[in-house]
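Bench notes, afternoon.
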Amino acid sequence: MTFAPRLAISGLLLLASPALGQPASPATPKVIEKPAPEVAKSAPAAPGAELKTCLAIENREAKDPSSSFKVAAGTKIYAWTRIVRGEIGKVTIAFRKGEQDVFTQELSVPSVPFRTNAYKTFRKDDAGDWTAVVRDASGKELALSAFKVEIE
């Protein structure tokens, strides 16, 4: 019976040999190098404002915004804007026909984000293609909205 304990101890030594500094098994995982991901191309900056044209402002929002208006002479068309990026200060909303600003209004922006609006009263000779533009204090265009006016 003296043989059994010796065999048991020698069997344990064989099982424990990898833990005692013996070479690892051939199933060692290989390190696979992946190529570096491509650097994302910079996307254009998001617009600094949202701009809509409409016939009325309700609860500080543009009511039924549109890009085409068939209105009677003397009707106000609003340019509603929400400033979403930029600095506190002033913005200018311009109504432009062709390349010329026909009407501009400077407005305060006490915080960002901020909603504000301006309007122009359209007369019988004002039919045609228009653009509303919102600009920051330096004159940079933050947003624009093209619209068509037909006077009845």
